[in-house]
Amino acid sequence: MYTAFFSSLESPRLCHQFTFSEIQSATQNFDESLVIGHGGFGNVYKGTISNGENLLTVAVKRLDSNSNQGALEFWAEVNMLSNLRHRHLVSLIGYCNDKQEMILVYEYMSYGTLEYHLHNSQVPLSWMQRLKICVGAARGLDYLHTDTCIKDRVVHRDIKSSNILLHDSWDAKISDFGLSKICPKNQQSTYVNTIVKGTFGYLDPNYFYTGKLTRKSDVYAFGVVLFEILCGKRAVDRGIDEEQWALAIWAKDSIKAGRLKQIVDINIRGSVSLKCLKMFVKLAKQCLHTYPKERPTMTEVVGGLEGVMALQEKLINNRLQATTLNLFAIKARKFMYTSNDKNYEGSSLNSLEMYFDTLRGENQTLQCFDLDTLIAATENFSEANKISPHTSKPLYKGKLHDGQSIAVTSHSLGSRLEEACMNEASILENLEHENVSKLLGYCIEGRKWFLVYDFAVYASLDCLMFDPECTLLNWDKRYKIILGVARALHYLHRETPVQVIHCDVKPENILLDGSLKPKLSSFGNARCQAINETDCCMSSISGTWVYMAPELVERGHLSTKVDVYSLGVLVLEIITGHKATMNERMNDISLDYKSCYYNSLLEYVEINWLEGTLTDIIDPRIDVDSSSMTAFLEIGLFCIQEYSEARPTMAEVVSMLLDSLPPALQVAKMRQMIIKKRSNSTIHRFDNHNHKLMVTTMVMVLTTTITILMHLKSLYQNYTIDSAYLKDFKLYQVTIYCVNHTTKLPWTVAV
C-alpha cells in the first residue's frame, strides 16, 4: 500500500520498533495525568522509556481512532524521520504498530511549542530569542529542501508555529511530518494534489488555487511564521475586520500604510532596531510574494536571518539589551510541550529553574544563593528578623558573611505567588533607582524559593505608620517618604525603556531603611506597556481594592493613572494616620466595594475638606502647624479623582510636592466634582447592633440635607438612619439618630 512512498527513499531504514507493552509501561498505561497535548493525530503523553542503555524522557503520540489522520500519515512520519537527521528537526526515537495501535515516540522538547510562547505564555520571548528561533527553524527547513540524505527533497506542507518545537537554550526544531511530500531535486512543481492539505492562514494561495505543490509553498508558510514572531499575532485573527483576518494580508497592508513600527509586538518593540526591523520585514514580505518564483529559497532566507541576527548582536554590544528583554507583564507559566491546542504544564520547580537560568544568562550580576547562606544571613529566618508580619509573603532582614545587608522573601512552590515571583524578578533586574528595591539574587531549594534584595530593611511603612506608639514619623520623614515614592513612580512611568505600572502601591509595599528612606517593593502585580500607550484592558486584576482606581475595579482599564490614584490614597493615610478603610471608625463592618468607597478615608477627607475642617483630621503626631497640611491633603485629593483624566501625571505630582501647592484652577474644578459626587451619594441604613450594612432606599438628597448629614457624620461616630415612605405626603421621611456617649439627637428631614 505504501510502496510508492517508500520507493522514493534511498535505502529506507526504520527507527526502533517498540512493543505495545513497552509503551504502556512508559506511559503508566496511558495515565491521563501524563497527557501533555492533543492534536489532530491524538493524545501526546510524557513518558520514560529505555533505549537499551539509558532511560529517556520522551513524548508519546498515540493515534486516536476518531482522528482524521491515519495509517498514511503515520507511516509517512515514521519513514521521513527515520531517514532524516538534523539538529533542527525533531528526533523520532521509535514507533509502535502492535495490536492495531499506531504510536510515535519522540524526544521530549522541554520548552514546548513556539505557538505557546507567542500566544499563551505571559513570559514573552525576547527579540534575540525570537531571532534564534527563526534562524534554527529556517535551517531545519532548508535542510529538508536541499541537504537531506535521500535522493529527493522534502516539502513539509504544514509549517506553522505549533509545529516548531523548542528545546533547551531555545533551539528550534521542525516537527509533524504527517503531511510531508517528496519532490524531485530539480523540479519546482511536483504534482497536482486532488486534495489540498495544510493549515489556513499559512497555506500558500498559489498552492490552494492551482493544487501545485512546491518548496516555495513552505517558504510562504515560513513567511507567515516570521510575521507571527515579529507581531505576536496569530496567523488568523477573527477579532479584526474580516478582510484582514489573515496575518499575511494585515501585515502587508499595515506596512504599505506606513505603520511599520506599529506592527511589532509590544513586548519587543523597544528592543528591535529600525535597521534590523526593515531587513527582517523585507525578507518576510519576499516570502509572501504572490508568485512562487519571486520568493527566496530557504537557503537565502537562512542567510538573511543570520544577517539580521548578526546586526542585532552587534547593536547589543553597544547598548543595554537586558533593559527590555523581560520587562513586560509576566506571569510565571509552566513551559509546555504540545501537539496542537492542549498544553502540558511541567513542574513548578523546572519552570523556576529554567526561568532564572534564562534571566541569569542575560544579567550576569544576578546571584544564585544556596539555602545555607540565607539561613546564616537571617539567623534561620528568626522571628526577630521578620519584617512586616502582616504581609502575604514573609520578609526577613539579614546580613551576608561579607557584611552586606539583604532582605529575603520566602515562598512555597505551587503557590499563586510563584507567578508574581517571576514577574517581579523580570522587572526588578532591569531597574535602577534610589527609591526602588533592587534584586540581588534568588534561591531555589526543594519546595521553597526565595528572592534576595540588596537592601538594609528597617521596617515597612505600615508597621510604623499605624502603630499608635511610634513617634519616628515626624512630618519631615513623612514628606520625604511621599516624595520618594512619587519619584519612584515617575521613574517607572517615564524614565524606563518601557512603562512600568506598579498596580499595588500601599504602605505594606514601601520598605524603609535605617534613615527611613523609602523603597518601592513588591512588583508581583506590575504591568508593562509601551511608553506612548495610554491604557489597556485587563481580563483579570489583582491587588488591594481600597487602593485601586475605580476604572480598574469596574472596567479593568489600566493606565499610569492607576498608580496616581493609589499614591493619592497613600498621601491621605500618611497625613491623617488612618488606614484607607478606616475600619476602626466603622466598627469593622464588612462592606462591598461601592459601599466602602463612600464610607472610607477618602470620603472622610472629602467631607472635611468641603467643610473647611481639614485641620481636625491631621495625625496629631505630625509636629508642624496642621494648617500647613491643607495643600498636601489637596494634592492627595487631586490624585484620587473619580475620572482618570482628571488626575495629574506623576511628573505633575512630583512638581506639586516640591512646590507644596496644587494648581488653584485644578483645586476649584476638584471642589465642583466632589460636591457633585457627594450630592449623588446613596443614603444607607446602618444597624449598630448587628454591624451590617443594607441599602433601604435610593434618595437624591438636597444640597442642604447633605450638608447636615456630613456635619453630623463628622461629629458622631455612630448613627442610624430610618426611612419611611409617607404615601399621603408623597415624600420620604428620613430620621437620623446620632449617638454620642449618652446623648441621642433625632433629626427628621423630608426629601
TrEMBL record:
Official protein name in the record: Protein kinase domain-containing protein
Membrane-related topology note: Single-pass membrane protein
GO molecular function: ATP binding; protein serine/threonine kinase activity
SMART domains membership: S_TKc (SM00220)
PROSITE patterns assigned: PROTEIN_KINASE_ATP (PS00107), PROTEIN_KINASE_DOM (PS50011), PROTEIN_KINASE_ST (PS00108)
Signal peptide, first to last residue: none
GO CC terms of this entry: membrane
InterPro entries: CR_Ser/Thr_kinase, Kinase-like_dom_sf, Prot_kinase_dom, Protein_kinase_ATP_BS, Ser-Thr/Tyr_kinase_cat_dom, Ser/Thr_kinase_AS
One Pfam family this sequence matches: PK_Tyr_Ser-Thr
Signal is among the record's keywords: yes
